[in-house]
Amino acid sequence: MKNLRRAAPLAALLALGGLGACASRQQAPAAAKPESSEPVVQSTEGGFSVAIPRPVSEERRSQETDVGAVTLHTFISVRPDVDTAYYVSYTDFPPAAVAQADPRDVVARASNGALEALGATGLSSRPLMLSGFPGWEIEGISGPRHLRGRFFLVGPRLYQQLLLHPEGKPPQDAERFFESFQLDPQVAAMLTGERRS
């Protein structure tokens, strides 16, 4: 399903310094506990939470695809001091278009699209699961930068989680960033209600 491949302005990640300027507003980490040092962003509308460094820029952008216009919701954190960018997004596609595709194929194609958009060479890829939903993980190289990404399909919603950093210098919180990503069970049930009934 090629129409799902370009659902992210991934090329912007290569210009790490300019990411903050293209954000429409700052997202307050609603789920962060005052006594906790772990910065957690929770998107009620997106149905997820994730540990990501502050500040986090949020943007909504309409994008044309082969199945019509969709809205891309992005959350981006940039750490210029270590030349690193964290990226989380979700996009809702028409349920009828996604229902005709194999979910594993959708996430695999989305991961390949991310590599292409960044001009990256793939190093590894593997299937994975998140709360019973199909996913795909990739790693690649784009110039002097290392890319790691995870993609999950929950009903008609595609989630993307990307980390871009200098090759050989992953941030200390890389694993926490990926492993902290959690779905809101109620939103997941709403998104997949028709499929699971």
TrEMBL record:
Residues 1-23 form the signal peptide. Residues 28-64 are annotated as: Disordered. It comes from Pseudomyxococcus hansupus. Keywords: Signal. This is Lipoprotein. Residues 28-39 have a biased composition (Low complexity). The keyword Signal applies.
